[in-house]
Amino acid sequence: MQQTKYIFVTGGVTSSLGKGIISASLAKLLQARGYSVTIQKLDPYLNVDPGTLTPYEHGECYVTEDGAETDLDLGHYERFLNTYTTQANNVTTGKIYQSVINRERRGDFLGKTVQVIPHITDEIKYRIKLLGSKKKFDMVITEIGGTAGDIESLPYIEAVRQLRYELGAGNSLVIHLTLVPYLAAAGELKTKPTQHSVKALLEAGVQPDILVLRTEKSLGDDIRNKVARFCNVEQESVIESIDVSTIYEVPMLMQKEGLDKTVLRKLGYPTDTEIKMNDWVDFVNKLKNPESEINIALIGKYTSLPDAYKSISEAFIHAGVANRIKVKLKMLNSETVTSENVSDLLGDAQGILVAPGFGERGVEGKVTAIKYARENDVPFFGICLGMQCSVIEFARNVLNLKEANTTEINVTTAEPVIDLMEGQKYVTDKGGTMRLGVYPCILKKNSKSFDAYRVSEISERHRHRYELNNRYLENLKANGMDAAGCNPDTNLVEIIEIPKHRWFVGVQFHPEYKSTVLNPHPLFVSFVKAAMDFSKTR
Ligand code: GLN
Questions:
Q1: Is 384 assigned a catalytic role?
Q2: Residue nearest to atom 6 of ligand 1 (CA)
Q3: Which of 107, 282, 443, 475 could form a disulfide with 450 if both were Cys (CB 3.0 to 4.6 A apart)?
Q4: How far is CA 513 from CA 74, 104, 141, in A?
């Protein structure tokens, strides 16, 4: 196999232009042409990983198979490519400094002054090349967080500059994503911000090879010409990225613009190879032409920032397409749900999902929403804290254990139906210490979950410290709440169900992380189907 080639994606002008989606779309196109590709995200903040960040800061924390707590862009990478990412696919400045400083303490640099250049940049280069080192990938796409000109991204840009030189001509390229704003008053698209942003990269010694321009209006030839001339790129390398209604259309848009071919040509690969995008195009067609629609209420406490529930929203898009239906997600802040307003708030929902979360805020609203779903036979899906709340609700209102709670909220509760896992009791550090990543789960044959997965052993990703307290299991079972899935090694209850209910499933794991365009998650598909069936009864 040839040497792995490296594609760097940087951003300019503003954040939130969609570098992650452009990277994932390019990777998708290259994969559809038969290349093996992976995507890596470099984040310029000092947290070692986003596990300790509130979702309000950077959106949801995504979890990989091997238990890395990562940036939400890795979710896009997996959803687009239908392949797994790993610990090595997300690197932060915190991680870089941590490993350099650990080595300094060990004495690895004895006698030397440890500096940003070369020690930090060397570590960055090492992390970038790590993914290519096993020769598993033809191409590694490295997305650099932040915006050109930011002080904190400078070491990354410097590492890219050095690496390009070390890798030699034809083995790497830089794609720079910028914004071409439309000034309504002038009636014009403006290229100056792009010129400045390329200048910022040039000052750091990096000439981009390809420019992707985000725009709301189509760029004419004159704009493409102008950008090419002022930014030293070929006209063919100026790619338009116009706003579209769904992120899943972006790969097709990039294909039309020839981004994949330009990349291949510049890296010395043939450009006349076959591209297999049929499944993808079919998915987008179905997505854009649903046969009907349903309302699903998502109850969580981070609802003011939709990115906080990114993987859940995307999983609903995949499951909607699988059912040929548009799922309209109504996000409801759990802190506003009370027993007085619950039927008004949830009356038009054909399905209720209670989201994952941490801490006390909003938990009572979640319990109230679950009571409504259980009593009114509305399809219910609880994820992680959502599942734990469904056990609390059932214990309080069916088992009549009024004090039932999780010890996350009340350490001294008389009825700890949800309790800290044994292995968590002596954990003091908060970072990276939850039960993370995949664990197996054995499904009970007669269950909604088994019907959905149609296999008896599954493996799902986790991120939690608390679990169902097995002391209550007999009582729960005797009164109508069943354990439909358990971990075979520890007996930890992974799934609860109420068999008498139309569709009531709570999962301790996070199914949303494993839903992709080509593999919609079975539980989401089944939940949406149940909500569709329920809508027909009303
Ligand atoms: N806070 C709960 C726990 O740690 C649930 C976590 C979650 O929803 N991801 O167990």
A1: yes
A2: 464
A3: 443
A4: 10, 37, 21
pLDDT digits (tens, 9 = 90+) for 472-492: 999 999 999 999 999 999 999
Residue 534 is encoded by which pair of tokens?
A: 């329920």
Closest-lying ligand 1 atom to the alpha carbon of residue 357 = 8
Q: How big is the CA angle at 76 (ends 75 and 78), to the nearest 5 degrees?
A: 65
Q: Which atom of ligand 1 is nearest to the CA of 359?
A: 1
pLDDT at 279: 97
Cβ-based neighbours of 76, under 8 Å, separated by 6 or more = 20, 21, 24, 247
Label residue 533 by pLDDT band (50, 70, 90).
Answer: very high
Whether 144 contacts 9, CB under 8 Å: yes
Contact 415, 403 (CB under 8 A): yes
- Most distant pair of Cα atoms in the chain: their distance: 76
Tell whether pTM > 0.85.
yes
Check if 385 has its Cβ closer than 6 Å to any atom of ligand 1: yes
Nearest-angstrom CA–CA distance, 164 and 295? 50
> What is the DSSP code (8-state) at residue 187?
T
Amino acid letter, residue 355: A
Decide whether any atom of ligand 1 lies within 6 Å of the 84 Cβ. Answer: no
Q: Is 260 in the pocket of ligand 1 (CB under 6 A)?
A: no
* pLDDT the model gives residue 1: 57
> Alpha helix (H) ranges present in 152-235?
154-167, 192-203, 221-231
pLDDT in tens, 400-451: 999 999 999 999 999 999 999 999 999 999 999 999 999 999 999 999 999 9
Extract the tokens encoding 115. Answer: 């500096």
